[in-house]
Every structure is written in structure tokens, then in C-alpha cells.
Amino acid sequence: MALPQLHPATYRIIALVFLVLIIVGALAVVHSALARATIEVTAKADRTTAVSTLAVQFSPTPSPDTSQPLTGKLISVSASKTESFSPQSDGKKIPDKARGMVVFVNTSSLPQPLLATTQLQLTAGGMIYRTEKYVVVPAKGEIEVEITADEEGKEGELQAPAQLSVVKLNASRQKEIYADVRKSITGGEKTIAVLSQADFDAAQEKITALLKEDAKKKLSQTIGSEVTDDHVMYGDVKVTSEQKIGDETDTFVMTGALDAEMPSFSQDAILAVAKQNYTSTLPAGYSLLGFNDTSLKWNVESLNEQKTEATLRTELEAFTTLTPNAEIINPQELVNLDVEKIKEKLLSNPNVSSIRVTFWPFWRTTAPAFANRITVIITSSDQPETTTDN
What we know:
Layout: H1 8-33, E1 36-43, E2 46-58, E3 71-85, E4 92-95, E5 97-106, E6 112-114, E7 119-121, E8 128-131, E9 135-137, E10 141-152, E11 162-166, H2 171-176, E12 177-181, E13 189-192, H3 197-223, E14 233-234, E15 238-241, E16 252-264, H4 267-280, E17 286-303, E18 309-322, H5 339-346, E19 352-360, E20 374-380
Parallel strand pairs: 1-20, 2-3
Antiparallel strand pairs: 1-19, 2-18, 3-16, 4-13, 5-10, 5-12, 6-9, 7-8, 7-11, 8-10, 11-12, 14-16, 15-16, 17-18
């Protein structure tokens, strides 16, 4: 049986379909089987703090040899201080004699002498006030005099204006000579300072600070360089005072004393050991650019009971960067990620300054699904971020 004859246009359509399928298949092969990603990472210097813990052994003749255990001397000083302090608490209120100034008025044509302790009174049977000194009240004149209540307490206070009579003068003379209260008589109660626990604690805190400053000054003079609290081990502060909590006093004296110790050693030696310790622990894939020698800091963490060895903690500013072409970036973590995700992930590393991502074929928008088709190239910046001393 003869096969049906197809129109020539049909053959062309069938051929075109096959061609399209071949092209699509080829593109699929290129897209998946030949996919590549190249990630160029530019590394920069990272500023970090190199922290080390090391021991200093005390010897009469410290050795500067950094290949041997770090050695030094233990310097000891004593400080003592005696200081006066004033209680700052609210204190305690107690009765006192009210006092104030009055103006004696003389309306007569004769002067009137008044002895010291001349008695004055507001009303018969009331509080007695006495003058503080001898005065003569001039005729047709006035004179100001200080007076004091006979008894302690608020009852002796007197609000102005008021008029006091001179007790020892006769009735007619009392009308001509009297004391005019133009300013209130006050002070029937006073507050006395009482030494409290808070006052004692504040004084001890202040004298402790003074003792530490004195000890640091002595240590500085001994070793010939600046000393900070981090360098010193302070003993307990011993304080004494003749006054005790609850005493009524305007001032109190406190005496304090303390002992202080610090290790003394070669700064070059401790710097060399700190550098060596950090370099030996530098992670794989990182390169050391250098150290800032002037940034070295150290503090005493402990002193053994025999006082033969101290433990120090050092801090030194260091600069590192990614080693060119180091295998510290895992391509497996980048599969199927787009450009933004790759940049976000890699730029989180403080040593990375920039990222350049290239996909092949050019139309790809994500990294290949296989890690072995992702190439990571690490290069260093042309200019270091900071110059340091090695």
C-alpha cells in the first residue's frame, strides 16, 4: 500500500520543529551542563585586637631573652593617708536658744544706759530675752542690739513685727524706751551633724582613691614610667577612726593604709611574646600584615600565693587579611544563589572589601547547582588600609 503524499510545506514545518527542539536541547545542555560562576573577592586589612594570656616569673635578674619564659621583678610599695571629713547626712535636730537683732527706741529727751543681759519680755510671764552687750540708747534715737532667749526651744522664736518691754524699767519709762522687733527672732532649733554609715563609707571610698593614687605615684617613680590601675595589685585598705557611727560631730578624721604590688619587666619582651602568641594562633587562610606596637596594653589578672609568678592579659592591635587564593570560602554555600545573595554572604566577612560575580552562560542569574563549577579567586587590595610596625 502506498504511503500518503505530504504537502512540501508540511515537511518544512516538521523540519523546523525538529530544528527548534535541537536548539532548545542544546541550550539546556549549555545552561546546565556547562554552567560556570567566577567570583572575584578583593580582600582588605582587618583591624583586630590580639588578646593573649601569659605568665611572668619573678627573678632577681630578669632575662630579656624572649625564647625563655618571661621574667621580671615584683615591686612593692605602701601608702598611708589621714584625712578630715564632714558628715553629709541630714543630722539630728535639737533645741537651741533663739536669737536675733532688735532696735531699741528712745522717745524721751534723756539717754538710757542698758547693761548687758538686760531683760526683755513680750508679755508678763512670757519668754525672757537678754541683750548681749552694754549699750546707751540715745535720747530721741535708736540703736540696734542682739538679744538671746533665756530658754531653748521653738517657744523662744518671735515673729516680726513685735515690741518687747524692758523688764527692769518702771511702767512710765517702759512706754518711752522699748525694743522694736523688726526682723523675726529665730534659731529655737538647730541641726547637729551625726556620723552615719553613709558618711563613713563615702570617706572610706575617697581615702581609698587617694591611697591608690599615692601608691601608683610611688610605683611610677620606682620603675620610671607611667602606671595605671591595670598594672597594680592592691591589698585590702585598712581604715581607722576615733569617731564611730552615731557620734555627734561636725568633722571626723579617718586614717587609711594599703599595700600595692606590680610586676616590672621589659616592654620589648612582653611585646615580642604577645606577637608570637597571636601569630601562632592565626587561622588558616589569613595573612598577618603587622602590629601597632604603640597600642600594647596589659593588666595583672592574678598573683600566685608564693608571689613568684603573675598572670597577665595583653591586648595588641593587629592587622590581618585574607591570603590570596586561600580556600576559606566554601563554594558549596554559594550554589544556586543570585548575585545579591552571594555579595551579601561574602561581604559579611570584615576582610572582604568588594565582590565581582560573573556567570556563564551570560543569561544565567544564579550560580550553578554544583560546587565544582564555582571558582573563587581572592586578591589583595593594592593599598593597605593601615601601616603598622612588624
